[in-house]
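Next comes this protein:
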Amino acid sequence: MEIIELKEHQDIAKCFHAFKELRPHLIDVESFVNQVIEQQKEGYIVCAIFDRADPNSAAAVIGYRCMTTLAWGRCIYIDDLSTRSIHRKKGYGSALLQHVINLAQQQGYAMVHLDTGYTRHAAHRVYLSSGFQFSYHHLSLTCQPKSS
């Protein structure tokens, strides 16, 4: 199976449905592509696997960033990993995850990190079988704009 890094507008657009299954708040292809392009300016990388049965829509996608932090040193952070429901159980998600792990090892990164939802048990099995451990709690706060 071939893993392709996507940079061009028309190629990123082919990933919309795979990302939308993970991120249902995504509205439309055009705003999605614009968001990905903006994130790519900050180092975000998108890779995909296309199934032969549907070459115009990605079967599985991964989005990640290479970074250096005080907490983790040089690491790769996986923002997004999604396989379309019609393509699950084919090993595409595991292959993308292993692709990033291999990249981290080849390029001397200390760690690979990701966050996952509490109820995503099928994804947890993939992560744990790939050597990941539950080691942190991720907290978030939605900020409301202050009125002037």
In short: The first strand starts at residue 4 and ends at 6. The chain has five helices and five strands. The two ends are 54 Å apart (CA to CA). Strands lie at 4-6, 45-49, 60-69, 73-83, 111-114.
